[in-house]
Design a protein that fits this description.
- Helix content is about 60%, strand content about 0%.
- By secondary structure, the chain is an all-alpha fold.
Length: about 130
């Protein structure tokens, strides 16, 4: 290999096929964060789609998407119960508590997933494995 002459660029290494482990890890964390926060857009649908696609390639993404799906199903059921209880005044308060709780727990889960930590919701019925 010869040294580049004046004004010439040194030869660039060929890009590696596929992503580096660091890039894959960043990608996995991003998908896990989207799975946790996607419940605010389309309830369980986004986590399900991520689990069905990206989850096939990454155990971390599959685990976190499954956890997000279980929590989002739990939150939807809790919300529906609170709406039924609107007949009693407590239902309105319960709806607010469920909404704020779901928001806080989903953000905590997204922060943990962004750090690469497998998060488990403290209040969750795990129907999907």
């Amino acid at each position: 290999m010869t040294e580049p002459g004046p004004g010439e660029q040194p030869p660039q290494p060929e890009p590696a096929v596929g992503a580096t482990p660091e890039q894959r890890r960043d990608d996995e964390r991003t998908w896990a964060v989207i799975a946790h926060l996607g419940g605010f857009v389309l309830a369980v649908v986004i986590a399900w789609a991520i689990r069905a696609t990206v989850g096939r390639r990454s155990e971390f993404v599959r685990d976190q998407a499954t956890e997000a799906m279980n929590f989002q199903l739990t939150a939807v059921v809790a919300f529906l119960i609170s709406v039924v209880l609107w007949v009693i005044v407590i239902g309105l308060l319960l709806t607010v508590v469920v909404g704020i709780g779901a928001l806080v727990l989903s953000v905590l889960a997204a922060l943990a997933a962004h750090a690469g930590i497998r998060y488990r919701y403290p209040v969750c019925v795990r129907l999907i494995h």
